[in-house]
Design goal:
heterodimer; A: 269 residues; mainly alpha; B: 142 residues; alpha+beta; Rieske Iron-sulfur Protein; 2 domains
Chain lengths: 269, 142
Amino acid sequence: MNGKGFFGCLAALLIAMALLFTPVAVLAAGGTQIVCITCHGTLTGKFGEPVKLWQGSVHAENGIACNGCHGGDPADAANAMSPARGFLGAPKETAIPAFCGRCHVGVEKEYRASAHGRALGRGGPTCVTCHGNHRVVKASLELINEKSCSRCHGFERARLIREAMAETEGQMAAIDGRIALFRGRGVDTDRLEKGLFALRNSYRALFHNVDVELVRKESTRIQGELKVLERVLQGVDETERKRKLAGVAAVAGALLAALLFHLLKKSYD
Amino acid sequence: MDNAGRRKFLVTLLAGGGAAAAAAAAWPLYRYLAPAGGGSAAAVVVIPENEVNEGQAKFFQYAGSAAVLVRKRGGELIALSAVCTHLGCIVQWVNEKQEFLCPCHAGLYSAEGAVLSGPPPKPLAPIPFKVAGGTIRVGEVA
């Protein structure tokens, strides 16, 4: 290969890698550039900060860009913030649950039924109080911590909820790990993943209700359903074990056949 | 043992081994191609017709997953998978709007299971059913 060809290949490889690692901001808009990020990404201070925060969020991780929440036209810089194109801007504090609840329907319902939701507009927390604004973090046990909860009230009740959830969350994390392991080995885990997602989502939506007894009661039910998933995983384990045994038997059979052929050949010598 | 006897013994062993190997290779192929047999009959769920009122939905388990029967206003019956095609949450029936809503990310489906809005990539999967003698037999082709 001459120098020109080498540099051509190198350039093609670099372009392919650049496309492969294109930020989700581009992917989320169906292949078009998100103009919000192009513009705000170059700004500093309060106009540029949301982009940096969003880049570390669960939304960015899952391809949900600015327009997913704020509306507008992410493909047209001139009309990106036009109300006629559905731009909503930033919600007022009391409108935050409804703003997030457009997608997180189940969570909003549980939140509104809770002491947190009933205190909305009277000093009560909204979604961003715990999950963050722009750097939206995934719901997890770590979110229920003394430092966060003590901003508004004592931690005792929150600790009870956290304790009630710990075992079930641990069970879900273990199943998630096993599913990831099987997925890595090429097993079709789509149905298992969806099953776990549905359970985890309904469970986590529930604890927005901040009702200790309800969390305890539902934990028992969810643990029962998680056991069903565990049984399916055991079935996959068993299939893999049988396949390994079949592989060993096939190799042993081939070796035995080779020996028999060798002996047969010798009988003709 | 003379050579002829030895050969016959070795050939018999090899032929037996070959037949066993061929059977072992053919078994997975047979299992893949063979009809499901009694499996589909076991999957049939029988629901009394009067349990699904007009404009209402009835959720149940079918073949290990959540499923739903809807009787639309006007009487038409529809059986669908109740598993959202986005991330697998179980959809809910919104009676006032006669639509399905996924509580996880607000995927909205029509009573027929078609995607109306939100992130679901596909409609809710239809399930065959048959109505006979006052019962709905979900899993049987009409």
